[in-house]
# Entry
Amino acid sequence: MKLTVLVDNNTYIDKYFYGEPGLCFYIEDGKEKILLDTGYSDLFIRNAKKLGIDLSALTKVVISHGHDDHTGGLPHLLERFDTSSFQVITHPDTFAEKRRGDLLTGSPVSEETMREKTRLILSKEPVKISDHITFLGEIPITQEFEQRPKMDTRKTPEGYVPDYILEDSALIYETASGVYVITGCSHAGICNMCAYAKELTNKPVLGIIGGWHMKKMDERAEKTISYMQKEGITEMYPCHCTSFAVKAAVHQEIPVHEVGVGLKIEW
# Structure
């Protein structure tokens, strides 16, 4: 499996790509060419071009959740490419309207449009998307220190309700010796995700790449680090919505790799 970071908040010194507060990973596993999220704008397309990645050859697009820093690139994907053969895999709640006051914070593309333009697959259950990669679907909450946050509001047939981001999900890459968690924001809790990955595969989690949605060191962050130490997770690539303070604290216990646009990983 090969993973390339197309969008992240961070860029590297002497690597001339663009960054933005969003996330997009390009993943190759066998014949499958997969996009996890699309960032906030068309930046993922520009960076892919500079990296020599042909997005017209994509086979699958996975959306981790509905926030616009992960779905903002969808209009550009639909406009610039023939997406009729692309399978798009995500949770059924992903395209619900989201608001923070008067500000729209959800996907700029509707579920109806996605059905018209792509081969849309909505699932709360795990979906195998390649020989070794699985979309986790809805994440069960198993860690007492990782309860779902209430963020903004979500539109339902009954009106606007508190948004607990039930759709938030991740990918796992399974090897003979263990699994790697590939996440967008981890609103469902990065440890909940790791626990679910272990439950599904009966294998240990070896590494993590993606956002943890942690802005400060607090009790939850401390318990997260303790969990990862206890589980023996050694390959750490926290990025996007993970603050410097949290990365630094993790690095004191488990070495952290710097993530930026253009990073390439092979697992």
Notes: The radius of gyration is 17 Å. Helices lie at 43-50, 68-71, 74-80, 111-117, 190-201, 219-231, 244-253. The chain has a mean pLDDT of 97.
